[in-house]
Fold:
Amino acid sequence: MSYTADTNRYDSMQYRRSGRSGLKLPAVSLGLWHNFGAIDDYEKCRTIIQTAFDNGITHFDLANNYGPPPGGAEETFGKIFKQDLKPHRDEIIVSSKAGYGMWQGPYGDWGSKKYIVASLDQSLKRMGLEYVDIFYHHRPDPETPLEETMAALDLMVRQGKALYIGISNYSSTETQKAIEVLNALGTPLLIHQAKYSVLVRWVEEGLLDVLEKNGVGCIAFSSLAQGVLTNKYLTGIPAESRAASERGNGALEKNALTEDILNRVRKFNEIAQQRGQSMAQMALSWVLKDPRMTSLIIGASRPEQVTDSIQCLKNYSFTNDELEAIETILK
Ligand code: NDP
Structure:
């Protein structure tokens, strides 16, 4: 079936500026960490991407190692891009990353210039793209000088292989240093990608202040805690769920679903119901209530999850009573 993008796709999505840059991102972006590997049903992957784009999600987040196998998600995305999204290249923001183990030997991991340059070349080939819009260093490398890693990112921009630069999983102190090195090189940091949900709060302890002070955006990941903050696990572990899938590569595992967490999530759900939201919607609205958040990246295993999750944009203001109740339950 050929795909024609919905003509109303820009009617309801909200777009937020990334820090003090010129780039706006959709408040809800889509990530391809899981559910887009070679083991996943291609037509389903395609429908998820189409549904996202039809609803104004213009940003697709990838990394060299997403799959399985590593590289698999970029290949799936490349196929869908060629089939459906090519005419819309100038309407979409594609990101990729390098920083985790990708190929054997000393040059396939961490943050050397050798690894970063080779990895982006490989990613572009897999996706069939001439450039990515955002290229990230995926995690800090304690052994490579920060100056070398940042210079490699800057080089990618100068060579036209990336338009903007991001970092992910860097602490506040490492982020401040990276910002200074990149500023000196003339390629300002666009955005920091950080794990942030009502259950994981480290960005509140300094990172968001550093980013705001320097005019850098922030994009959250795993704001649904991989599905824990949805109604999925309230009464057990469904067969069709990430926790049951044993996908590995950091995917949610059954033992994370303790009775303590589930009891707290059930109380969280009661607040969502009082607000007239699904639990997923409330968990996402909670992240987006902070104007310093440029966007958040949702994962989805089916198109209906995309359409459910984006309804979070209908209400992301909270009363003090709601916020206090949430703190008491979850923090
Ligand atoms: P989420 O916390 O959004 O979890 C996604 C999962 O939650 C889905 O696969 C689905 O689970 C479930 N879900 C989603 N929406 C709904 C809904 N409306 N109702 C019920 N269940 C729902 O995000 P991820 O952890 O998948 O991460 C999102 C993206 O963030 C990644 O794809 C990646 O791009 C990025 N990321 C970046 C990292 C980094 O180090 N920079 C690390 C991790 C992620 P199910 O599959 O069980 O149906």
